[in-house]
Structure formats: C-alpha cells, structure tokens
Amino acid sequence: MNEIQVQEIMIPISKCLKVRKDHSLTEVFKALDQNRATDNEAAHKDSIVLDEDGGFIGKVTMIDIFRSLEPKYGQVEKQRKMASMLSSGAVMKIARDFNLWMEPTKTISERANQLKVADIMHIPEKIEYIKEEDSLERALHIYVMGVHQPLIVRNDNNDVTGILRFGDIFEAFRQSLLSCDPA
Question: Which end of the chain has the lower number of beta carbons within 10 A, N or C?
C-alpha cells in the first residue's frame, strides 16, 4: 500500500458533483440524479461545495444530509458519543424517545427545499486533507483514526484536485491482496 499514491485512485475534481453554498438540498438531490444519469461509473453521492469564484470551501456528504433533515439528531449528540457501547435495542429506544424520522415525508421534503448547502456543509479540518503524492497507507491510517469522509486531495500548490473515498482505498487494498494470491 505504500507504493500506491493517492493520485492513482482518487476521484478527480472534474468528476465530483459541485454545488454552491446557496443551493437548496432539493437542488443537490436533483443534481445527484443528473450526475447518476450521465455517469457510467458508480455515481458519487458526496458533493464538493464551491464559493462564487469556484474555489473549494467544503463538502456535503450523505451523513450531513441525513443529520440536517432530522434536526433532532442534534439532541442525541451525547448518546451518539456512547454509540459504541449501545446495543441495537438501545439505539432504537433513543430513536423512539426522540421521535427520529417521525415527521411526514412532505414535511421533510419542505425542509430540504428550505435548507441551504451553507447550513449543512462540512468545512474540512486540516487532517481531512491529503496530498496527491501521499501513500494509500497514510490515507488508510487517517480514515481508521476516524475522519469525516471523503478525504480532500490537494496538489503541491494546495489546489483541491480530487477526493478519496474509503471504499476506493479498500478496493485498491483488496486488488493488491488478490494479486498476491498464488491460486
């Protein structure tokens, strides 16, 4: 894994779905549909957020969307930190206690229409950036230590050039291991 560089398996920025911070969530959903219709490969569900000048300012992931559409998740934050100690029954009890996802779909759809990307986007921390020349091993360590997916890839000029998903690292690792299989 040390021999493979991030740039070899990253998704180039040109293939990423790009949204603006003033877009509504509904507009993001429609853009995802268009992206899926035009992309022969597996469509990406994370979005890159650009400012008015086309510069990178953040990302919107599936988890960001789910958390924004069910605002009561914010009330559950303390329990979420204990999630590794909870059984599935305890998780469902918390979901019932907080009435998570109990609103009608129409209400949630209206919320998606009102929420702006700027309200829900994730502004990456320093650890969420990785260089094109970095090894997949380094990327794997960053993911396993627990970062908000995907990693943002930069070149030597610190320009954002792509994203690196955990699944892409896994696939490269899987292929590498299978290539060593004597069978």
Answer: C
Q: What's the predicted TM-score (pTM) here?
A: 0.81
Asked if residue 21 lies in contact with residue 152, where contact means CB atoms within 8 angstroms, the answer is no
Per-residue model confidence as pLDDT tens digits over 130-178: 999 999 999 999 998 888 889 999 999 999 999 999 999 999 989 888 8
In angstroms, rounded to a whole number, what is the distance separating the alpha carbons of residues 98 and 132? 43
Q: What is the share, in percent, of the chain residues with pLDDT greater than 90? A: 58
Homologous superfamily of 6-179: CBS-domain (3.10.580.10)
Gap between the Cα atoms of 116 and 81, Å rounded: 27
Give the Cα separation of 1 and 173 in Å (integer).
Answer: 7
| Domain residue limits, the chain | 6-179
Contact 47, 28 (CB under 8 A): yes
d(CA 104, CA 60) in angstroms, rounded, equals 24
